[in-house]
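Our consortium's second objective concerns turning raw sequence data into structural hypotheses that experimental partners can test. To show how far this objective has progressed, the report includes one record in full. It was chosen at random from the queue rather than selected for favorable results. The single chain below, 346 residues long, was entered without modification.
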Amino acid sequence: MTMTYRRSRPVLSALSAGIAATALLLGLAGPADATPVPPIQNFGTIDGFGQNSEHERITRAALACAPGTAPGAAGACFQPASIRQLAGANGTMGAIGAPDADQVLTEAAHCDGADYLNAAGYPRTRAQATSVLLSCIAHLKGEFDRGVEKADVLVDAAGAVSVSETDLSSDCTFVLGVPGRGKCNAVEGFGRALHGTEDFYSHSNWADQADSRSAIGVANPPGLGRTGPAPFLRLAAAAPSASDIPGDLTTGCFSLNPWGCGKRITHGVLNKDNGTIDPATGKATSPTTARGQVAGNFNAAVQTAIADTRAQWDGFRGSLIARYGTVRGQRMACAMTHDDPARDCR
């Protein structure tokens, strides 16, 4: 979910949104039953309260198998029941939505707080901003690596897919550390990592442009206008260093306290969280945030997030092979993407 910061009205507690999101994940409430809560912190996870399931739609556009297309032995795309677990669907938030249920206020889970402006008197240094961003990347790498680790039980030492560990006759539960089947646990690690990497493109100035009608400043930070995924965000690669982070890169400060960000660049100023995304083509239209409405910024954030999501899955598959060997690793990727892997991944 997404917090849209408005100076003209009070910021309501994000904890209530997290509770509502947890209820959705546990199947205790459907969207129609949810208590009205403000949107919070990132690309949207549900339909309603200003959101349009942006995380789900980005993930589907990136990784869902097109009609009539199979994942193949390498697991190139996710079949319907498997993409439902990763991306969510009507009534379920999937692994991609889990951080909105139990990590709502975890800065690193959403890549918030790495704000910086090259201007005299700005209250944060470049080094401080970079440290926060590196902490976000380390957190996401931890989730990513946990997914790779949990995939071990999908395929036994002889290369056979486990029927019980890959069963999708019921939806997975991705919340509050509740353990599940092996496929659920592997998908959860990957999905939680994707949540943060997708958020990075909405919450940062990596792919956007400043408003040319206003002076550059806290209310209108510069845009970097990059057109491809950030190389320092490759979670399958070695951790980046401070020298890998561009000097003018910024993400927004997020606080439940309306005055908590002081004179810093806020999430509300910089985010490109909400709009309409076609889950088949990835086409992004009708942005609703101020920064998203500038110069095609919403579409730029979405397209870069889609490209990065595909790259992260390629990296995840490569990590499985690197850890478990070619035969087992490829079969694990096959098991994660196929709806009946015991039959299809031999």
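The partners drew two points from this record. Residues 1-40 have pLDDT under 50 and may be disordered. The first strand starts at residue 47 and ends at 48. Both points have been shared with the crystallography group to help prioritize constructs.
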